[in-house]
Model the fold of this input.
Amino acid sequence: MRFFLATATVLLLVALAGAYALLRPNRAQLAPSLEIESWDVVADGEHNSNTDMIFWRDRFWLVHAASPYHMGTPESRLVIRRSSDTRSWETMASLQVPGKDIRDPKFAPIGGRLFLYALSNEGFFATPEGSVVSTSEDGMTWSEFRPVGPAGWLFWRPKSADGKTWYVPAYWSDHGKSVLLRSPDGLEWEQVSTIYEGEGNDETAIEFLPDGRLLATARLEVTPDTLTGHEDASTLLAVAEPPFESWSYRKSQVTRLDGPVLFSHAGRVFAVARHQAGERGPLTRLGGVWSRKRTALYQVTAESLSYLSDLPSAGDTSYAGVVLRDGFAYIDYYTSAIERDYPWLLGMFLPTDIRMARIPLGSLIGLADERSARAPGDS
Done:
């Protein structure tokens, strides 16, 4: 009898814990001074994810992955949409790689054409195998995806300071190393330098600083692809002077900067990426799938990473795109239902929506000034 009572008690506690995780209300922390407006762009019951956005030829262009769930499947596709106001969108194209999972799309306007870079992946766990690229003259008709760059390197977001020479950070398909590549045309790439090596080095983003230096962030998993994350996981902050061949480093444990997009305004660098809410314990270390996740704003310097605010988000979320226009930051990202606060793992198998946030740039600078005065270092 005692055995059955004990078993029933354990099962009841597990059921209650599961119900709490499923039903608990969202507690995202939105800074009131940011005056965030947000709305759904895509809410169609699919698992929509991995976004990017650009302003090209007088329109906003949005791309996102669409799939039955977060995990790998050849059913995945990249959907391209266009809008004049970020409120009403028309679908322009839907792209796939036959027999492959595809995700992590990134736009770049190179030589009058719109380039779309992405990662092709194998298997249920979406193991990346390499980068692919498609191009378009009008955003509606696209070339077939073709391999791009040195084999095995996974492109993040290409950028250029002059519109002529393009740079892209790329991380190795088996984790543990990131490099900087350079190209005049977006198709043929050569290595400039090794940004970092070790500690499960993963997604790496770049942004040009006002003085011409290059700032990079990298997701350091330490032990890649673990369910519980790692207590030493962190974000790498790396800086290089032209010609970007030698890098200096700092690290931050404010978060593990997953899915980062870096952007600049008024001489400041900001990031939109994942934030892990709550205390860190054995099951909620940085990167753990049992944790609560947010899409959040950060200020980034060569020395520190500072959290600013969550955006309305929960569950499986982040991987944003940013456009600065008419005094506002337009930020698109994906998220599970924002009324609840699912753990990341549950969010991976539930529908996710593409959401837009609009933030006055003056409010963003004001909040950054306020937080910098309060905590000049990592916060």
Remarks:
- The first helix runs from residue 2 to 23.
- Residues 2-17 have pLDDT under 50 and may be disordered.
